[in-house]
From TrEMBL:
GO terms for molecular function: 4-hydroxy-tetrahydrodipicolinate synthase activity. Gene3D superfamilies: Aldolase class I. The keyword Protein transport does not apply. It is an enzyme of class 4 (lyase). PROSITE patterns: DHDPS_1 (PS00665), DHDPS_2 (PS00666). The active site is at Y133 (proton donor/acceptor), K161 (schiff-base intermediate with substrate). The lineage of its organism: Bacteria, Pseudomonadati, Pseudomonadota, Gammaproteobacteria, Chromatiales. It comes from Acidihalobacter ferrooxydans. It is found in: Cytoplasm. This is 4-hydroxy-tetrahydrodipicolinate synthase. The keyword Amino-acid biosynthesis applies. One of its GO terms (cellular component) is cytosol. Pyruvate binds at T45, I203. The record marks A49, N80, E84, Y106 as: L-lysine inhibitor binding.
Amino acid sequence: MFHGSMVAMVTPMRADGEVDDAALARLIEFHVENGTDAIVAVGTTGESATVDFDEHCQLIKRFVKLVRGRVPLIAGTGANATAEAIRLTRCAMNAGADACLLVTPYYNKPTQEGLYRHFKAVAEAVAIPQIVYNVPGRTAVDMRPETTARLADITNIIGIKEALGAVERIEELVRRCGDRLTVYSGDDATGMASILAGGKGVISVTANIAPRLMHDMCAAALRGDRAQAEAFDARLAGLHSALFVESNPIPSKWALHEMGLIEDGIRLPLTPLSPSCHDTVRAAMRQAGVALSGDANA
């Protein structure tokens, strides 16, 4: 149902931290025009942790309205309280999202049985396609492949975004449940290898900055053209690293501001990119062929 380069899109904000509707519309057009295969709204990169429930729902509605069905819209609706995840997921379904992305509950560190019951409860409560999301580096819990394999038997759990950053984990998930569940990489640095190992795409931070190149890389990998995929990925490699020199989405938002696409707004406790990191991110952008607003050819 979903494949290729799926951008984990930032939520553009003004300097006062309020959502910038004009920039949101501009970014969505940027992705549609540059071949992004799906847009993920209000996930980790979209600063979901700093929006309240009502704002979260309103943002999903804005995304749906602006995308207008031109590419699939996947709404981030995860929460560490199962009841809240159900409410957010129901809001996304009612708004017209094509699917939801639900992160493993963070901070409270559930057991594997708790993870299974959490996702099962959301899936049974809301009849929308759902992609579960494993990112141990942020949540302090690793959903094991055997748990994912149990979830694959639930009809509307259609995929997993696996962000452990190990291709071996992707291979195991494809082997265990690839006929019942679509596997996506949630780690840009191993995204190409993950697709070549049987994954169907990348839910990508890098795609915020270089959407066309990320789309081309994923397309090449999906058709099994390793040489072409490697050539594209070599140009993206600097971004895969530089966009994490500080916590995501700090570098991505700074880069988009440098491209003239958004203001430099970000919400506390996140702060603007440290000046010591500016040259690193700029160099990675230029390696990927991204024009900065101050460049002569921009």
